[in-house]
Protein 1
Amino acid sequence: MEYNHILVRYGELALKGKNRNLFEKQLQQNIRYALKSFEEIKVRRTFGRIIVELNGEKYQDVVEALQFVFGIHSLSLAIKVNNDLEQMKKAALQLLKENEEPVQTFKISARRAYKPFPIDSQSLNHHIGGFVLANTEDVTVDVHNPGLNISVEVRETATYITSGVYSGAGGLPVGTSGKVLLMLSGGIDSPVAGYQILKRGAKLEAIHFHSPPYTNERAKQKVIDLAKSLTKFGASIKLHLVPFTDIQTYLNKEAPSNFQMTLMRRMMLRISERIANQNGILALATGESLGQVASQTLHSMNTINEVTNLPIIRPLVTMDKLEVIALAKKINTYETSILPFEDCCTIFLPADSKTRPRRDQAQKFESFLEIEPYLQRAVENTETLFISAKSNQIESEELF
Ligand code: ATP
Ligand code: MG
């Protein structure tokens, strides 16, 4: 007898009725997606759980893949047996003997969810516990603080015996909260912000501003790679690459140097808003963190934010840089982010950016400019790539 199933538990129990059903369906679909490479596996929904049938696949690899899937609260390896006391006893004993660490104390927690089963939970605890004690040495029962808790769940069609719990990624299944347009630079912060958004169940599209020939192909590839890393957490990502050279050159020539950063950000937001509107996206997201740099003071955010009515989600706003770095390492984007390619912002920006730009000043400087044709051209010439979670390859729209 060996582990033949994984029980998947999901949190957020406040979800009720229709939402709950959608949530469960999406989670089941995302799990199937994440486990695509395991051909024998079946993923079923039953009694408020999702059950992964291993059919001979190695559980270690499957658990690892499941730990990236948002919406999963916890996982347990399980042995599925018939509703038969002898089989339950053997499975419980097996779990105890095969536990990774030696077990000194244990407890049986039986639950008779299927009431017509003739033995009640108390008696089940008693019978199964007794059998384990009789077949082991130096092991005792401790109901308050057991070294190993073996749960026995009797359902109508089968009994699941589990021990130990792996934590899941938490959050909500990607695809249950709409779509967000992530402003993705090549830096450390924005991919982490993308991860946080995915965690709350939104799908991502990403937008990146680049300035060829000042930024090169490798800088572009870096952003593609970052978007690819994010597909691991849920779904394919549409990446919009916006040519930004003309706008930057124009601002560089026509705007006062200490206001260029502010005006450039306002342009980025205006373009992002248009791309969001074209794609049915209701919110933007950035990797900004309060006070981190000149463009991220409240004065700056206030003046930059003025140009759009879309909500801007800033998942990192209260985080310290070190916390962000730790998370970037955990999600494996850090190594890519620190590759030293030039970013469009760093190339043109003068060192004397204002930390307290005011809205009226920004409006005044923009009144001397003719920005609309620049905005239109940037949007028109935006290149869109489709980055698929399935193959982790860039595919054309038709295949997507
Ligand atoms: P990051 O580490 O994400 O690059 P940062 O600390 O370098 O952030 P800024 O350069 O001030 O901060 O950028 C703030 C946010 O603006 C970024 O997190 C990102 O969301 C967005 N952003 C900056 N540059 C670009 C770009 N070239 N394309 C798209 N979005 C950008
Ligand atoms: Mg940056």
Protein 2
Amino acid sequence: MNVGVYPGTFDPITHGHTDIIARSLRIFDHVIVAVAPNPSKHPLFSLSERLEMVRLVTQDMPQVEVATFEGLLVEYVKRRGAHAVIRGLRAISDFEHEFQMALTNRKLENTVETVFLMPSEEYSYLTSTIIKDVAKHGGPLTDFVHPEVAKRLDQRLRSLRP
Ligand code: ADP
């Protein structure tokens, strides 16, 4: 079976992430969305909240598995019997960081490839950070995230509004 791992912080999952997951299913038989704890990024949502939202958004995609991992990504990829890391590429600004990570992962494990997918252009500017800013100011979120994610963002950030 052709298995790919899509790692990220998913704080929270946006339509941009979902677009990449849907595209990856055209290439892979099984996609593991691997939610990283990433405490150094000080996520707004806990790991279990992020996992729950990814599960909710992908519930109609039976080939998608939602999991978490710790430690080296390439070790997790090998352990899960996968052979590729899936990453999304938005604007040019993503390129340098993604380039460094892909080549580092290749150095660590030469058998694991990184596959880059581009989202639909309407999502190519979307970042979880920008969405959190919109939510903080009470802006509409429906074009960016699943309605349940919008609800949770609103609840979480309501108290921070001026
Ligand atoms: P990380 O902390 O690993 O960057 P993110 O959740 O921010 O985690 O992103 C996970 C992956 O999804 C990254 O490859 C990122 O470039 C990609 N991604 C995030 N938002 C979008 C989007 N709007 N369109 C395409 N790819 C995206």
Protein 3
Amino acid sequence: MQRDPLATNAALMARRNAAVARGVGQAHEIFVARARNAELWDVEGRRYIDFAGGIAVLNTGHCHPEVIAAVKSQLELYTHTCFQVLAYEPYVELAERLNALAPGDFAKKSLFLSTGAEAIENCIKIARAHTRRAGVIAFTGGYHGRTLLTLGLTGKVAPYKSGFGPFPGEVFHALFPNELHGISVADALVSVETILKNDIEADRVAAFIVEPVQGEGGFYIAPPAFIEGLKKIADRHGILLIADEIQTGAGRTGTWFACEQWTVAPDLIATAKSMAGGFPISGVVGRAEVMDAAAPGGLGGTYAGSPIGCAAALAVLKVFEDEQLLARSRAVGARLIAGLQRIAQAHKAIGDVRGLGAMVAIELFRDGNLARPDAELTKRVVAEAARRGLILLSCGTHGNVIRVLVPLTAPDALLDEGLRILADSFAALQ
Ligand code: PMP
């Protein structure tokens, strides 16, 4: 492939900075030329291993041939009718497939949208329509999107919420349990009850919204006892339970939805990101009578559930079956955890190695002191790894977590190569 000698990362960064709004962040000063499975190449021809997966979008890898083929054949048929004007079968088939995959011994229905934030907005609309209540309780450190309602639900001010308020009312934040940082399951459940005592009557609360594993918040896993306790409070007061599976879904945690590993079923599930392997589509799957609460015309959107997104999502589901990617997710997770634990043994800054399936992270502390989260070192490790050819993302309310969202289709040799680069990066910074 012929490369444009003027298209260096630095030159493109200068154009970007002059032309693109400052508020759009960028983790790495790299411009991509092409990508395949878990590898990508920049405009200067440099190769990288991708442990970021476009923030949890590429569980089936960059440009999976089956997904690309499905999109190409859809492109030849029709690209847009607007489902609310003229319907198409792939949307219905995708709804049938996800309804069958979602946990819970009750009838389910789905609807499709375009972005994760839109799926969350629709979860809240549907929950309010069904319960005829306004209140929503979300959790500290949670992340639910960048629209004004989803920012209101998000439990972290900087950089997401700063300067953008006021946010829609009737949203409250309870504590998310986090043993590592001193918040027990009991503390978290008490904080929910406290909101019901101090801020809003239980019979005005429509829903609890929770991530099975907090994504942007730092890859903290919701303990089973917390979810069970939350569900008990929900049932006592007729409050719905919403699982935000935008980052955890589509096989990342070893099951299609992470909430399949719960002992209770959520009433609504928000899904997006990896469900369509790089094409924009999101959805809400849930209890049929709840999903049907909104009147015809109340839900939807011009591009919502686009034929391209539906075709891609159906192809992703087929790839999961053909390549047994749920089992692979668990194997990738085990390999990453073992590799990261080995690195942690040599570097005491790594105070925790954790994961659910292939949703894996390490957390960094100054001298391994759990009271001193080390965001600075985290930034330096991520930058050093990128210089050495490994793309990583940080996260966490303290900015001290390095997360791995590598495609599940990545071969073991590539996982090991990525882990080696990470180990070398730690060693170089010692
Ligand atoms: N919820 C969670 C848990 C997410 O991780 C994200 C995206 N990082 C969103 C919601 C918002 O999705 P989108 O950026 O597609 O609007």
